[in-house]
């Protein structure tokens, strides 16, 4: 061990005395500024009949999350309270030269009278309390006390989802005095008011500006009195970009994909049915996943209308296929009946007992009819044109048209201009290629302007 020299020992004693003195002064300062008859349970004196004014300001550091399922949001912020305490005795030696304030340890706050604000709509009381972990107490020459503390709170918010996913949530924070009525303590916003961290960014929301600040008096039934209350409204505006990419664009493409079935012939029944059913299942799966992001509410949301519209168009395309298939079946049935009922005429020469004569034998079913014809006559069928077996294609349109006139709905007819046969189910498919896109375009042009107008009105 090295021997202790006299200068070293003297320096050590001086340092130890200064350290003890500084600690002694540090602990004595609170005793100096508080008078002997100070009672912290009594509020500071004010003018007769006037309450103590406590000014508040908030600096929002971060909004951690906005939970739509639990309908709340988490916020980190600095709370600053300022009030006048005329009972304090502030000697000049506690202030440094050129300063008009002094910062004392947070423990000094327990020796002072202080207001008792609490967050009325906070879900977790323990988290929302002002603690001394990150806090400071500042005393000013004019006997003003300022207490600052950082806190984390979970705030309940009654959200509305009628315009989801273009909804705008207005979430308030209520700060109220717990023990002192508005006749004793009055809360009000300072000039700073509420400030939001300019670097704050949220995933799906944008914190709209400006914030609305209010000073009200709330009647508390359990305490039978009016209490001073401060209200700040946060405006969370949902950004539509995420849903445009993940919801509206894919669902629109699926609806357009279902229109391809109108170009497929009825012979491709498996392909046409598979296409439409796949589109329907895709929309159902897509919208089922979206419903998990928001709570099940009892009213209709804007996204529900879009979902219902898209599914209705795909379902209508599937219904159109069923209709044209039934019409095609009816058309084929009538066509077969016409072919079976068509008479078959063939030329036959029969030798009778009284000589040979030109006859034409016509079979209708199993019966045979014979009639005489004059082969030399120019007006006879045999002489005018050779008797041949008529083809079904030459007589089918006319016969089918006759059959259609006997039914309520004509599934085929002859075009008066071209003379060609037109089938009803083919005409429906051609018309659907134009009608379905036009109706969907009308739905889109009505949906978005109405939604934007309602969103603007709600803001």
From TrEMBL:
Domain Neurotransmitter-gated ion-channel ligand-binding, by residue range, is: 34-239
Membrane topology per record: Multi-pass membrane protein
Spell out the family assignment given in the record's similarity comment. Answer: Belongs to the ligand-gated ion channel (TC 1.A.9) family.
Q: Which residues form the Neurotransmitter-gated ion-channel transmembrane domain?
A: 248-339
- Residues crossing the lipid bilayer are 248-266, 273-294, 306-327, 434-453
**CDD domains membership:** LGIC_ECD_anion, LGIC_TM_anion
Protein known as: Glycine receptor subunit alpha-4
Give the keywords, sorted: Cell membrane, Ion channel, Ion transport, Membrane, Signal, Transmembrane, Transmembrane helix, Transport
- Give a GO molecular function annotation for the protein: ligand-gated monoatomic anion channel activity
Q: Which residues form the signal peptide?
A: 1-22
Subcellular localization is given as:
Cell membrane; Membrane
Q: Which GO terms describe its cellular component?
A: plasma membrane
Gene3D superfamilies documented for this protein? Neurotransmitter-gated ion-channel ligand-binding domain, Neurotransmitter-gated ion-channel transmembrane domain
> Which PROSITE patterns does the UniProt entry name for this protein?
NEUROTR_ION_CHANNEL
